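Hi Q.,

Before the meeting this afternoon, I wanted you to have the adenosine-5'-diphosphate-glucose prediction in hand. No need to reply - just skim if you have a minute. The sequence and ligand are here:
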Amino acid sequence: MGRLIAISNRTAADPKARAGGLAVAVWESLQKSGGMWIGWSGDLVEEKPRGVNVFRDDGVQFVLTDLSEQEHDGFYLQYANSVLWPIFHYRLDLASFDNESFAVYSAVNRRIAEITAERAAPGDTIWVHDYHFLLVADCLRHLGWEGPTGFFLHIPFPAPEMFRALPEHQWIARALSAYDVIGLQSQQDRRNFIRYMEEEHGGTELSDGRLQVFGATVKVEAYPIGIDAAGFEKAAESELAQSAADRIGRFLDGRQLVIGVDRMDYSKGLPERFEAVGQLFDDNPDLHGKVSVTQITPPSRSKVEEYKELRIQLDQLSGRINGDYGDLDWLPLRYLARAYGREELAGLFRRASVGLVTPLRDGMNLVAKEFVMAQQEDDPGVLILSEFAGAAEQLTSALIVNPHDTWRLANTIRSALQMPLEERQDRWRKLREIVTSQDINWWSANYLEDLNTLSEQAA
Ligand code: ADQ
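Predicted structure with the ligand bound:
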């Protein structure tokens, strides 16, 4: 068997980035096959870069390219994060279309494909990740690459009505048909994708579930991504976790903790969540001084305008709640715009009575799974999960909510805070079983098995 070649915008070239679940899974799969990881170095240069940085680490070869300022602007900030990201998260209102960025996006996809084609050998398998690189397989086919090439979309695939708003949707759809396997996070995403291809391009679903479209046959499947469940459980036992739990424990002074942990992104439903917290304290004076909500939210993509506005909105909403209800010795809502390490987060999750995971749209949402793995059987916290997170298809024993319905969300937080131990344990055991059995290794093994089966059939 040949090597696995992974392509993603950010790689785990920096050993510190190998701690996260996805990085671990891709890293291990690459190590097994003496594989290669191709992506962006994270560095910006003035002119279009000519060469690549190649190095080997622990059996994995990294091939990294810099981006020019102009590429970073058109490809990353504009097309990927101001067009694709909002549309795929159902925020057509936030998409900012222009005439140039798709050309830059295509050019960067082409360059990544060229870098790959120069190095890929017959027998190798290529695995492309996420919305930054929708066109790579098509570019590779034009360069003569015929080997197995799979794609995994980490974010939702939107309803066809939304996807059609994308001016380049026809082009992108055709390019996607160059992949052998298209992996999506949920059955909902799969249904959306198939329906779009059927309605718009006359695609047909075959009896074995594959899709025939644009003269190609593509396996389209839901592969819900998991976490390094055992690793996260261990992280919650670590000294760092304990010390984070102790620190927040001093602040809590015996009060119940409700916790949220999300990148600062408009898809995560943070303003709606803050509204619900406001409603909770408006409607329940008996909870004043008894419950503290902590939201941990490191800024991300702060160069994109919508993200700056979100920050201002969150500052205002938390200011209102704390202004109305805060007291000399109690803050109802603490909002920390910074990142914490994996162990520290695990410790905070373990200390919490309730985990709030209420995105408006999310491909999967790993925080929900991390929260579950950090709990202990004798006193598990309750997970409140948005029906619009991919994770809701698996984690059906969580309290499932509509994040737009702030009144009901407030009531659900109250019920979670008061849920009897037996019910908490019952729900948690079911959640833990799923998160443990469908972990990150299960995910990558399933995906790669399908991709490799295709390559064996083709050989
Ligand atoms: P994200 O949108 O980044 O991922 P998520 O799945 O929640 O969302 O993963 C975020 C990761 O970052 C988690 O491991 C979490 O612990 C960590 N993190 C979040 N806030 C943090 C903080 N304050 N400090 C430190 N770490 C923090 C995208 C898609 C998701 C999909 C994943 C994986 O948007 O839907 O689940 O990819 O496919």
